[in-house]
Structure formats: structure tokens, C-alpha cells
Write a structure and sequence with these properties.
Blueprint: H1 2-13, H2 20-32, H3 46-66, H4 74-79, H5 82-86, E1 111-114, H6 134-145, E2 151-155, E3 158-161, E4 167-169, E5 176-180, E6 195-198, E7 200-202, E8 210-211, E9 223-226, E10 239-242, E11 258-259, E12 261-262, H7 267-272, E13 284-289, E14 298-303, E15 334-339, E16 350-351, E17 354-355, E18 389-394, H8 407-410, E19 414-419, E20 425-434, E21 439-442, E22 444-446, E23 452-454, E24 466-467, E25 481-482, E26 484-491, E27 502-506, E28 511-515, E29 530-533, E30 539-542, E31 549-550, E32 553-555, E33 558-560, E34 586-592, E35 595-597, E36 600-602, E37 609-616, E38 619-621, E39 624-626, E40 633-636, E41 650-651, E42 654-656, E43 659-661, E44 673-676, E45 682-684, E46 687-689, E47 696-698, E48 707-709, E49 712-714
């Protein structure tokens, strides 16, 4: 089979300049010369390592066959370390990548043009007289779509700023296409030739930079500017990016800057270089616990094990299925859910039936380590009582920098802490700092049941592991000690602004402080052209099952500058241990036959595309996702507890030929595609690599009918 595969791919890819046969010869030469050396610490012998190199090249070759239009796929070539490890000469770089965008069916009279840099909203929107903003063009296209006709919005190259509000599409926008100019028929790697939709605000429009004269170290080149109200940043700045790529930054169209943090670290380089030096591995003496919520959750429990001959549940309404087939735990044959109590932290997500609850707050939950983390001791299957920290004490000798932080500037800081076992990262907002006792306390927030809970911790689906049985792993703590992976860092602290490429926003004084990269000039204005990030959602298609949006297409567009959502409340999708934020740069709910195709999602701090509630036949194809904070794509339906018969779930979602890499930079528990409470997904011919956990994650088996085939996945769980 190997020679056939090679000859086929060499034929198909010859026009792209990828000589696969030559690469195979490179490996043979490299290894025969004794250069296929085993990595330090590896248990492989030299022969096995030769096989490893061949496996890497097979993976690269398979990716070229899956998506030949993206050849030579230099990102996957480099991720497989074919040159470094196996002596394969890299293919020549790609020139212009031609992509023929489908021509919308609407006629010229229903086509409107948008050019943010050169247009004017007082124009008529015709070719040669474009509108300035997408929002103004939407008024014009609705003049067509409200009558049932199709309409097209053509975006010119350049950055299209949304000026503080996402684009909201509904059923009245059915048959609308938002597109790069189809007449050009070319997408290229040159950023200036692509239209980009941005959730940010260009600081050049108001910034008046001056040198900060009182930094902690006089050598720091830190600059500051006021951020006035009324410039679409009234809620603050959650991220800061450059308009274009910086010279020493990682590949891409533009560059992220780092919110001031301890220890220092660029989140992209931290991931690319294996997290070395980017986290503290010790220094926390004790995590504060508050177990007053234990046992106070309202639970829902259904025993599904009593099966009639026809497979229905005895004593239940006709057609209710039973379940008695779990070979792992008998509790998997029951339905369990919980609301409130210790689980009020996870009540941020609403459905048409109210908050969706948390499986791990039920009284019959099961799974890995369940029961070991129950604050009541013994194995009570954790029900009612997942524990989270409410603050921590630190060792000032190990982490002396924290002792210098003032109470005034610590408010609003965020600690990122890995849960025991390293499954996910939790973020908590810090409210106060007692320097004398070396203690920090997390913020609290009101709950739906009238109480309060910690602000944060919802980014994973369950609590922290609790030590209740002697001998205790921490002899000074005794019962109730919260286990922790060890890795942690704190960001958004003024005193941590001590390295190039960092920034900090003083929300009270509305002043932005920037430490420019050493490769820039002395001020951060002209060389950097900064963009303050404001919006987490850029486009929503949001309608209802009764009156859905139909046939909306977004194609050939880039999405950038979408905000971090880790401190917005999340929910628990179903019985898996994932938390999830219901939202994305593109959010789709109540839509039939909608498509996102040939788009680029770059340096989105939240999710890329999110499919929610009732959708049918949504297509997500031929896109690229890179340097994403959470998941590239995710879907999450609604159910009324265990009843999903109302159809309020995504079905027949088609996901194909997407190129997905460098995801989960902010939250470890992220995937290229995540699904919960949806069914009949068709996912094929995608390339997924360089991610923190599962490349594809099914949180449950709802509905069935899903097809996953011909996908290349590597470098995950790293």
C-alpha cells in the first residue's frame, strides 16, 4: 500500500511543490547515516526511532491528501519536527493560495460593499461608493432579505471594527451572504489582502502616550495613556493586540501582548516551548476552603434500570427509554443532576428551562476520582458537594514578588491554577491581599438561590480533589485539604508589569500602561498600532426554532480581537467533567442551512465558532483556526433535565477540511471540536494538532448518528 499511497500523493501534490518521494529518500539517508537519534530519556531504540520518523512523514502525507489546497502545510511539517528529528528538507514556501469563493446568487442590485478605511456610511453602498461599516450595510441588505430575496455584503480588504457592538443577524437576514470579494477569487497569506472583522478598538484614534515616570525599575520603558469613556471601551480592556505582526513574534497576522503577570511568560510561547518557566510549581501554602454549602444542592434523580421487553422504562410515559447496559458503573444507568448549594458556581448558563445544573452536584454521579473529592469523607460519590478554593496563603520566601503587591492594585487580578491531575485550569478573581499574613482572598458573587459563591472556578465541570482519609497527604492540614496540581500564575497586577510586551489597564483610573517590546521604538504609538479588545462575540446568528434564520453564509473573512471569557460564568454541558462557555466569535442558534466557510479565526481568546440550541444542517468548512484561547468549535444543545425530545439541539452539523492548530492557550480543557447534547454530526477530512487535551471531545452520547472519519490528529494532550 505504501508505494501506491506515495505515488498518488506525489501526483496530486506536484503542482504545490511538495516532493513526497524526495522526503522519503531524505529519511532513508538520514537514518542510514545514524542520524535518527533517540531523544533523551526515550525508551525507543534506533530502529524504532526510524519507524517513528516514517510515521511522522506518513502523517504529513496524509494531511496533504486530506486538504491539498493548503499545501505545503508548513505548520504541520514543523509540528511533526520532520526536519529537526528526521532530516527531511522542508518544502518550498507557499506563494499565493487561490481559493475560489462561491458566487452568491443575489444580483447586482442586491449587493452592497463595505470598506472601513475608505468608505462612508452616507454613500449608497454600491461598488465604487462603499459603506464604511457592516452595521450600515446590514440596514441595506435587510431591504432585500425582508422580502424573501437574497442579498450579498462584500467586505473590502483591511480591518473592519465593530465599534463596541457585535453584528446580530436574525431570521430577517435569511439568504444573506457576507463575503470577501468573490470577484478576486483569491485568499492570500498577506494580511492586507484579507477582510478582517475585529472585536477591538484601534487606540490610535484617542491615545496620547507619555512616559511613565515612576515604574518599579527606572530602566523600564513603560508608557501610559488615558482611555476615555465613549470610545467603545467603557467596560475596560480585556486584551491588547498589535495591528500587524511584530518582528520577533510567532507566526500569524498580528501579535498578542501579555497582560502583566507573575511569573512572566507569553502564553503562546509558553505552549510552543512546553510551559517551561511560565508557571510557579510551588509557593502556595494552603488553599482556603468554605464547606458551608455541603449538602444544600437540590438534586434530580431518575433510576433508568427497570426495562420492559420493548426497551422502555417501566412505570414511565410511553416511549421513555430505559438504560441498564453500563459495564463500568451501575450508577451510569441512572440520571443525576444538581442545582444550587455548592454547585451554584456553575449556574451561569441558561436554557429555555432555566439553569442546566451540574452532573457532579447530583447524588448519583460517577467517574474518575469521584468520591475521593467529597468533603464529607468516605465515598459518597461526591453528590451535593464539589469543593472549590476561596483564597490561598503563600510562602513569601518562595514567591517574594507577591509581598510587594498593594491591596489597591490587586483587586481584579486573576489567578490561574491547575486542578489536581491536570485536567483543567481554574481561574479565580482576587478581591484582597493581606500582606502581613501573606494571604489573598477571592471575590464572591451572588447566586440564584440568594447566597454567595466564589467568583470563578467554573472553567472545569467539577470541584477540586479533597483529602479526607488518613494518612493525609499534607500532614499539617488534615481533613479537607484541597489537592492541587502545583502549577499557578497570577495576571492583571500593576506591580507585575516588569517585562517587554506586557500591559496593564487601571480600570478605576482608566489608564493603560504598556511596556513595548524591545524591538520597537521608544513610544508604543506608531510602531505598535495597538488594538484594545472589547467584544467576545463578533457575529451572532440568533433566532428561534419556530422562526429560524435560513441560508446565511459567512465566507472568506478573518476574525480577530475577540475577548477572553474565562471570568464570565460558565455551565456544565452534561455528565463529562468539562465546563463550557456558551459563546464564540461566531455564535449560531436558531439557524437552518447556515455556513461558515473559508474563514480564518486567529488569536481569538474565547471559542471560535459555537453552535447552540436548535440548529439544522450548519456547515463549518475550509476554515483555519490558530492560536485560539479555548476551543476552535463547540456545540451544545438544550434539554429539560434528561428529556431532549423537543429538538432544541444542533443536528446534522457538517465539519470538513478545517485546519486547526494551537488551541486551548488559555483553558487547558479545550478541543478542536466539542459536542454535548447534540447529534448526527458529520466530521471528516480535518487536520488537528498542537492542542492541550482531546482533539475531538464527546461529552455524552446524546442522540447518536455521528460520523467521525478521515481526520488527522496529532500533538494533543501536550
Amino acid at each position: 500500500m505504501l508505494p501506491l499511497s506515495l505515488s498518488l500523493c506525489s501526483y496530486v501534490l506536484a503542482s504545490h511543490g511538495v516532493d513526497i518521494a524526495r522526503m522519503w529518500r531524505d529519511i532513508e539517508t538520514h537514518c542510514s547515516n545514524g542520524n535518527c537519534e533517540v531523544s533523551t530519556g526515550s525508551k525507543l531504540d534506533a530502529i524504532a526511532n526510524t519507524t517513528d520518523c516514517k510515521g511522522r512523514l506518513l502523517a504529513y502525507e496524509y494531511g496533504l491528501a486530506l486538504i491539498p489546497a493548503r499545501a505545503p502545510q508548513m505548520e504541520s511539517f514543523e509540528a511533526l519536527e520532520l526536519e529537526k528529528t528526521c532530516g527531511v528538507t522542508p518544502p518550498p514556501p507557499r506563494g499565493t493560495r487561490r481559493v475560489v469563493l462561491p458566487f452568491p446568487s443575489s444580483d447586482a442590485d442586491a449587493t452592497y460593499y463595505v470598506d472601513y478605511e475608505h468608505g462612508n456610511d452616507s454613500n449608497d453602498g454600491r461598488k465604487g461608493s462603499p459603506f464604511k461599516t457592516i452595521r450600515r450595510a446590514l440596514v441595506a441588505t435587510r431591504g432585500e432579505t425582508t422580502t424573501g430575496s437574497s442579498a450579498t455584503m462584500v467586505l473590502a480588504a483591511g480591518v473592519h471594527y465593530l465599534e463596541g457592538r457585535p453584528i446580530q443577524l436574525t431570521a430577517v437576514d435569511s439568504k444573506l451572504t457576507i463575503t470577501a470579494d468573490p470577484a478576486v477569487n483569491t485568499l492570500t497569506e498577506t494580511p492586507a489582502q484579507l477582510p478582517w472583522i475585529s472585536g477591538g478598538v484601534p487606540l490610535d484614534t484617542f491615545a496620547k502616550w507619555s512616559k511613565w515616570e515612576s515604574p518599579a525599575n527606572a530602566s523600564y520603558n513603560i508608557w501610559m495613556t488615558s482611555v476615555p469613556l465613549g470610545v467603545h471601551l467603557d467596560d475596560g480592556i480585556t486584551g491588547l493586540n498589535t495591528l500587524m505582526k511584530m518582528p520577533d513574534a510567532l507566526p500569524g497576522t498580528y501579535s498578542r501582548m501579555t497582560r502583566a503577570r507573575e511569573p512572566n511568560g507569553d502564553i503562546e510561547k509558553c505552549v510552543a516551548e512546553g510551559q517551561r518557566g511560565c508557571w510557579h510549581n510551588q509557593g502556595v501554602e494552603r488553599w482556603h476552603t468554605d464547606l458551608s454549602c455541603v449538602g444544600k444542592a437540590r438534586t434530580v434523580y431518575l433510576d433508568l434500570r427497570d426495562c420492559a421487553d420493548d426497551g422502555s422504562l417501566v412505570g414511565a410515559p410511553t416511549g421513555t427509554p430505559c438504560k441498564n447496559d453500563s459495564a463500568m458503573w451501575d450508577t451510569y444507568n441512572t440520571y443525576s443532576n444538581g442545582h444550587g448549594g455548592c454547585c451554584s458556581t456553575w449556574s451561569g448558563d441558561d436554557s429555555p428551562y432555566g439553569p442546566m445544573g451540574n452532573y457532579f452536584c447530583g447524588n448519583s454521579s460517577a467517574g474518575g476520582w469521584v468520591g475521593y473529592e467529597d468533603p464529607r469523607g468516605d465515598d459518597k460519590t461526591q453528590g451535593l458537594s464539589p469543593a472549590l478554593p476561596f483564597g490561598f496563603d503563600y510562602n513569601a520566601t518562595i514567591v517574594p514578588a507577591l509581598s510587594s503587591w498593594s491591596t489597591e492594585t490587586i483587586e481584579g487580578a486573576v489567578i490561574h491554577a491547575w486542578r489536581a491531575q491536570g485536567w483543567f485550569v481554574n481561574m479565580f478573581e482576587i478581591a484582597s491581599h493581606d500582606k502581613d499574613s501573606h494571604s489573598m482572598t477571592f471575590s464572591r458573587m451572588s447566586t440564584r438561590d440568594g447566597g454567595t459563591t466564589v467568583k470563578g472556578g467554573w472553567q472545569g465541570g467539577r470541584g477540586w480533589q479533597v483529602d479526607n482519609q488518613p494518612p493525609y497527604s499534607n500532614s499539617t492540614e488534615g481533613p479537607g485539604y484541597l489537592h492541587h496540581q502545583g502549577k499557578w500564575m497570577i495576571e492583571n497586577v500593576k506591580e507585575a508589569l516588569d517585562a517587554p510586551n506586557e500591559w496593564w489597564f487601571d480600570k478605576k483610573a482608566r489608564k493603560l500602561y504598556v511596556f513595548p517590546n524591545s524591538t520597537t521604538a521608544q513610544t508604543p504609538s506608531a510602531p505598535l498600532h495597538l488594538v484594545g479588545v472589547a467584544l467576545d462575540t463578533l457575529i451572532t446568528i440568533n433566532s428561534t426554532m419556530a422562526q429560524p434564520a435560513v441560508g446565511i453564509t459567512i465566507q472568506g473573512v478573518g476574525f480577530r480581537d475577540a475577548a477572553d471569557v474565562t471570568m464570565k460564568p460558565w455551565g456544565v454541558p452534561s455528565g463529562g467533567d468539562w465546563g463550557l462557555y456558551r459563546g464564540g466569535a461566531v455564535f449560531i442558534e436558531g439557524c437552518e442551512g447556515c455556513a461558515v466557510q473559508h474563514c480564518t479565526f486567529e488569536r481569538i481568546d474565547g471559542n471560535g465558532v459555537f453552535v447552540s440550541g436548535y440548529t439544522r444542517n450548519v456547515s463549518i468548512t475550509d476554515n483555519e483556526f490558530a492560536w485560539i484561547g479555548l476551543s476552535a468549535m463547540a456545540g451544545w444543545g438544550y434539554t429539560k433535565e434528561n428529556d431532549g425530545t423537543d429538538g432544541q439541539q444542533p443536528r446534522f452539523t457538517h465539519i470538513e477540511r478545517n485546519y486547526i492548530r494551537e488551541i486551548g492557550l488559555i483553558e487547558k480543557q479545550s478541543s478542536a471540536w466539542f459536542q454535548a447534547k447534540l447529534c448526527q454530526t458529520d466530521m471528516r477530512n480535518n487536520i488537528i494538532f498542537n492542542g492541550p487535551r482531546a482533539g475531538i471531545n464527546f461529552n455524552d452520547g446524546f442522540g447518536g448518528g455521528t460520523n467521525i472519519s478521515r481526520n488527522l490528529i496529532f500533538n494533543q494532550c501536550r
